[in-house]
Design goal:
The chain has a domain of 94 residues: Distorted Sandwich (Deoxyuridine 5'-Triphosphate Nucleotidohydrolase, Chain A). It is globular, with a radius of gyration of 19 Å. The chain has one helix and ten strands, in the order E-E-E-E-E-H-E-E-E-E-E. The strands form three sheets. It has a four-stranded antiparallel beta sheet with strand order 1-4-8-6. The longest helix has 7 residues. The protein is mainly β.
Length: 144
């Protein structure tokens, strides 16, 4: 798969850090340090613009190290970037920690994973097939 990319950031083009990495890191394209207070959210620019092939999406996902060490995560994880979107890729970060957290220019703030998808054709009906689970959800199967 080939993804066309325009990099207007001050930082290197994303790359896979290991042979079997599923995602590439997205960097904060800022000139100054950003301070996020507890529970504050902010759109972080990346300076990247993509042309994703038809039949694929890009998913913006949290980085596990930032989540564990700083309490930062992607608010709408995974954020979907559709193949027909041509604007700048942004990352909605939220600080879930109890302390103010800083984001440095060029810091890797999220990861981007590409995935194929299919669009559904909906058929309106009067009833759905029965299953053992039925309409049980939101923890209805227990925790152990």
């Amino acid at each position: 798969m080939v993804v066309k990319l325009i990099n207007k950031s001050a930082f290197e083009t994303p790359k896979y850090e290991t042979k079997n990495a599923a995602g590439v890191d997205l960097r904060a394209n800022t000139e100054e340090t950003i301070a996020l207070s507890p529970m504050q959210r902010q759109l972080i620019p990346t300076g990247l613009f993509l042309e994703i092939p038809d039949g694929f999406e890009a998913q913006v996902r949290p980085r596990s190290g930032l989540a564990l060490k700083k309490g930062l995560t992607v608010l709408n994880a995974p954020g979907t970037i559709d193949a027909d979107y041509r604007g700048e890729i942004g990352v909605i970060l939220v600080n879930l920690s109890n302390e103010t957290v800083t984001i440095e220019p060029g810091e890797r703030v999220a990861q981007l994973v590409f995935a194929p998808f299919e669009q559904a054709n909906f058929l309106q009906v009067d009833s759905l097939s029965e299953t053992e689970r039925g309409s049980g959800g939101f923890g209805s199967t227990g925790t152990k």
